[in-house]
Metallopeptidase family M81 (Melghirimyces profundicolus), 283 residues
Amino acid sequence: MIIPTTTTDLSPALRKCTFFHGFPYTDTRDVGTSVLVMTNDDRSLAVQVAKDVSQQIWNRKEQFYPSLPTPEEGILALSVGESPVLINETSDNPGAGTPGDGTYLLKAMVEANVENTCFAFIYDPEVVNQAHKVGVGSMIQVELGGKTDSRHGNPLKLHAYVKSLTDGRFIRSSPMGKGSSVNLGKTVRLQVNNLDVIVCSIRAQVMDEQIFLLHGLDIQQKKLIGLKSSHHFRAAFKPLVQKIITVDSPGLSTYRLDNFNYQNIRRPIFPLDPDAHYSFWGG
């Protein structure tokens, strides 16, 4: 069985053993879900516990494959008076090796034009350099994102106002790496109608609110926040927002594992093969 990236708070009953979901975006023979059990020199007990936990995981396998909304559906799910709401685009998470310049969620937010919204961040050094040349207070025509490949969406043609420029440096406040220095290269905050869009020169996933604060944006005063990440952002953002909506679209870190053309993975394997049966490789 292969499982998309999952947080431990989604599977509290499994915390007593070390449960490795594996990295499902790796096309190797041995990729898959694993359970590691340690005992005090009792091999038979370790094997039995591993079998029991593995069976529990298999019995709950459907819970690891949620049906995620599209970016458009995620925005439509906003409730009146519920803010701030955060939408994370799991399919273009640079922490998983994606290009970080995907445009599916950003395009949906531009078209929805919900008031008082922001997005951080999209990787596009060309647009950043263009904004730094004209300076704060200028209007520019840009083709934003979608430059690495066509899998993650096409470039967005936007007429934008250059609100602020920074060097992309700040100190991380997230529990993950708190106090460490971050350098995202030159950045720009663009305003497109009701939407503030932060563009950076270095690929990275958003871990905390510091990239917003660097550009003068207080996310707790926003109605809707969009960002590129799968799970690591939650430690910092959960206390700051009312709701998190994870959306999926085509991309290298999508939950839709059947979108990939695996060549080397051991078959049959769930969910690529829905009729695959439970098997225990160990002991």
